[in-house]
Amino acid sequence: MAERFGGEIVNCDSVQVYRGLDIGSAKVPEASRRGIPHHLIDIAEPQEDVTAGAYSRLARQALYAIRDKGRIPVVVGGTGLYLRALLDGLSPAPQRNEELRTRLQRMVGRRPDSLHRFLKRYDPDAANRIHANDHQKLIRAVELTLLGGQPATAIQSIPRTPLKGFRVLKIGLSPERKALYRQIDARAAGMFDEGLIDETRALLNAGVSPQAKALQSLGYRQALNVLAETMTIKDAVTECQTKTRQYAKRQLTWFRREADVHWLDGFGSDEALKRAAAELSGSFIAHRETG
């Protein structure tokens, strides 16, 4: 699509942003990119945490730069939170504070009801909304309240800043479920055949912590278990296949809630689907140019 309509690719995959995570994220090799610029790939070290907010800022910069060159940004990927942050913006809430979160986690360990009691006093709306045993959400709500100087509910209600200056065409792929699962199973097995374990070992040897967020993604998590000798390769492949199918199901559920998506039945490699996507895009671009 980018080649046909004079576009540049903007990655929207939360694993492809990391250097060295190539096989498990299915990055398109440099030699196969047909000379089309690809943005937001290999922009961070594996031990970094590229949050949705950080992604949104970088992606918007890329979109404006592409537009200023008279070209069309083509955002590609399936990380729903990244896309939502890019298009709709995020609540202007304080960033995570790991030191504070560690202290709050210790409080939970000593007195499990302490955070919920705190919210009852300082943010009763959040206390009513969050279950007393949902410690992760409780920690975030208390963190926001303490860092923001006002109830988390008030902070989260501050209007978001949506992307401006663009008209957006959303195209979603919806292949038949059994065919999708067959491709997922084949891809998961293929990653291990292509050297996923060696790639993971190289990352560890380079000093990347096995606890790094990037290495908790599908495929790498199972490869870590193989390297730790807590899982066989066969079991690692099976688990990766199962969890990837589950993730794909959650992805579809997420994106079905997105407004104004043009759903096309099939895979991106299907010729009929390519033609349908090209017709949609061509009509959209023509309307933009004449509207």
**Ends distance:** 22 Å
Write down the overall mean pLDDT: 95
| Largest β-sheet summary | 3 strands, parallel
Categorize the overall geometry. globular
Q: What kind of assembly state do the chains in view correspond to?
A: single chain
Query: For the CA atoms, what is the radius of gyration?
Result: 21 Å
Structural class: mainly alpha
- CATH H-level name of the largest domain... which superfamily? P-loop containing nucleotide triphosphate hydrolases
Summed up, the helix count is 13
- Write down how many β-strands occur, each being a DSSP E stretch of 2 or more residues: 5
Find the CATH topology of the largest domain: Rossmann fold
How many domain units? 2
Low-confidence stretches: none
How helix-rich are the residues, as a percent range? Answer: 40-55%
Helix and strand run: HEEHEHHHHHHEHHHHEH
Beta-strand portion reads: 5-15%
CATH architecture of the largest domain: 3-Layer(aba) Sandwich
Strands of the widest sheet, in order across it, are: 2-1-3
CATH class of the largest domain: Alpha Beta
Key terms:
three-stranded parallel sheet; Histone, subunit A; 291 residues; 7% strand; 13 helices; 5 strands; mainly alpha
